[in-house]
Amino acid sequence: MHTYARFPVTLVRGEGLRVWDETGREYLDLIGGLGALSLGHCHPAWVEAVERAARTIGMTSNLVATRPQAELAERLAALVPIEDPRIFFCNSGAEANEALLKLVRKHGLRRGAPTIVVLDGSFHGRTVATLAATGQPAKRAEFEPLVDWFRFVPPGDLAALDEALAPGDVAAVFLEPVLGEGGVIPLEAAYLRGVRERCDAAGALLAVDEVQAGAGRVGEWLSCSLARVRPDVASLAKALGGGLPIGALIARADLAFEPGEHASTFGGGPVPCAAALAVLDVIEAEGLLGAVRTMGALLRREVERLAPAGTLAEARGRGLLLGFETAPGVEAAAVVEGLRDRGVLASTAGPATVRFTPPFTIAADDVDVAAKAMAGALAGAAA
Known about the structure:
This protein is an alpha/beta fold. It folds into two domains: 11-30 and 287-382, Alpha-Beta Complex (Aspartate Aminotransferase, domain 1); 44-285, Aspartate Aminotransferase, domain 2, CATH 3.40.640.10. It contains twelve helices and 17 strands. The chain has helices at 32-35, 44-56, 67-79, 93-110, 128-132, 137-140, 158-165, 189-202, 270-285, 288-306, 332-341, 364-382; strands at 11-15, 18-21, 26-29, 85-90, 115-119, 150-153, 170-175, 178-179, 185-186, 205-209, 233-236, 247-252, 312-318, 321-326, 344-345, 347-348, 353-356. The strands form four sheets. A seven-stranded mixed β-sheet has the order 4-12-11-10-7-5-6, sandwiched between helices. Strand 8 and strand 9 (185-186) form a beta hairpin. Helix 10 (288-306) runs parallel beside helix 12 (364-382) and helix 11 packs across helix 12. The longest helix has 19 residues, at 288-306. The chain is globular and about 55 Å long. The mean pLDDT is 97.
């Protein structure tokens, strides 16, 4: 089905940040699997871990434990700022968020608080509940009515949040610390800390969607850590698997699902868990959290420096989750097409935002190629 407006490109091979199409043309990949390709294409440590796991054991189901799953749970529990965490593994960000919504809904119903506060402009997935929680009406319209658990407020507006919390019926506030599909919009640290304080005062949970911004993409394991905010519940996916499908719901132990309340046949299988362990190993061994911060700042700075006057309205983001808002009259889709013509692959996050989500292994010479191509693509789109 034509669920994506695909580029006229068929890729056949990748290595690091480079990919090649069937004609042999080379591209610099700044899409990075829409943020999932944390180590780049075919990183040797990742490939070796996947091959070793695939040769060792196949599908087991979650009626038994496996060592990769247990080891990954222990590693994540040690990395994320959630007190005494419990972890549920699944296969994607949408599944992780669906599980998250069930979890906080269960908690809220037990205390007579069935509502979840979410943000305008947010994106949490394509399943029924995650779509209902998504603050982009155009994405919901064809499928409504959806579930009615959600109360929307504008991002960054603590007064609006106070009003939403006032009825006393809120189980949780659920947000992306960096709105990804909504235009790569980071929420201010003061706002995130204010949300945490208000959740505590109201007896509500703070749940964060870290699918796009988590697992190292902003230079921290959770993007909310940039604001020194500790959530009660978090979802991870994308960059965690380095290219294989995996999602994780992480929650305080007192919130955890009981047997029979949730499940996944494929979630936490030994091969994707081994891949995720390799991702964590490489990030730590190669110091990639620091590299993400350094290279992200350099990439943003170089694009801003080289962009022709009047073509770029704003550069924003955190780490290697970057959005470049084009000036009025310059369409982001045209810029993405111009980048592709210049041998660089990027995506959009709305009609006016060009998004870069490259692998964490991006180097200074890659930044130079990307920034120069972006300058040319902006000029071409403006013309």
